[in-house]
Batch of 2 targets.
Target 1
Amino acid sequence: MSTRGEAMTQSQAETAGLARVFPRRTNATPTDALAFVGDPPMFLPPIERVHISVAFTWDLPEAERLARAWEHVAPVSIGGPATGKPGGQFVPGRYLRPGYTITSRGCPNHCWFCSVWPREGTTREFAIRDGWDVLDDNLLRCSPEHISAVFSMLDRQPNRPKFTGGLEASVLTAEVAERLRSLRPEAIFFAYDTPDDLPSLRRAAELLRNAGIPFAGHRVRSYVLCGYSGDEIGLAEIRMREVVSTGITPMAMQWCDEDGKGFPGWGRFVRRWSRPAIIASKKKRRASLFGGAP
């Protein structure tokens, strides 16, 4: 009989003998003994099967190469968002390191630039697993009961929550804003993808401010899509400054195709509008010009 310290967690039991292989390392890549980036090393623990997890479509050729490199170790399969297959129930620690969680998948919106709704369909709610960095595609489109249960789960976590997956500004309510305040989130992300998103973003900023959520320290941020066909740096600059005017910190997200390539000439702009320190200086300059905080 195992002692408490030796007891196997549910996620460990579910991944026993399963090697997870990733084409590239990110901040979310697991670091346990059965998680690998790239080719198999010389010495391996016992492995019964190999899953190659691909997040980005431009990594699919490398995933296919890795499948050939790992096939002599154990049976191999390729999966992940890049394959276009819908995701299933989230298993903590399997394809994302502990701390990340996904409680729902899918989105009812049909944005032209988004791969979520063709792959995942409309919103599907799953069992809620512990974590503090929420990566749901569109959490606020879930049922009120599910959202409440997610917030209750976040209440008991050892770390302050992050909503890295993003919250849809247009469906944020005063009640949800109040509940977010009680969670003391480390980070809340929205999205400004097209110009008609701006009124909703302004309204969301007002709801958060009225609820008493501080914006200092880049706690409230917004992804801002830029660099797509027909976009111009001057127009994107205006959108970034519109976000700054709400008190929210923008984060430039350059559009790219399935090969991971974007239109040339956007690199410097994206770097400039992705670094909080630079953006903070822009906010301070604006505050000094207009006599107060944005």
Target 2
Amino acid sequence: MNNLSTAKSSYLKFLPSIYRGTDEETAVLFERFLKIFEKVLTGIDDEVEIEIEGKKTKVSGISEIIDSIPKYFYPDNAPIDFIDWLSKCIGLVLKEDWSDTKKREVIRKIIPIYRMRGTKKGLEEYLNIYVTGGVSIKDNLAPLQIGTTSTVGVDTIIGGLPPYVFIVDIILAVPDPKAIQNMQKTVKDIVDKEKPAHTYYRINITVPTMRIGYFSHVGIDTLLW
């Protein structure tokens, strides 16, 4: 038996002296009895461990568990198994290929972004979480033009007043057709959810290329490697 298990119960001091026992044998009995409640309620550092799903963990008291609850709501301190649940509480979808550090960072930044909901800056900040190349949003107040592609219900409306249209410009760092398709769907889902109800939009995806005879800007429409 180690010295921790023979340590006196801290609850003993709360009892009147008459309950502490008049002899050593009675005192030890009271201490052991009180340590049962102390272990359950406030915990005792007696190095006792239990095995849960193959992992050994310390047996904590109820008050210790309650005191640890706040850490679960801070992304930097929450256990990684709790991160997905935490993201669902704030309406955020985490990408499976993100690292644990990235997931924590996104959750930490999303609340200030939510305060800008309904604004151009807020939507840009939100989209830039998911788009690695970069996203910018600009207003499009130009009328319908003949010879250009227009999609009814997206950037064109027939009859009535012209809608408020904005353009989502996306720059992808990797010219991968599958990545472009996945990114377009991701952006569309986010914009449909976050945009003001009376607005319409168009998505432009730019893949960095370099062509002789045209202007190219490194980091904007051109990558060097």
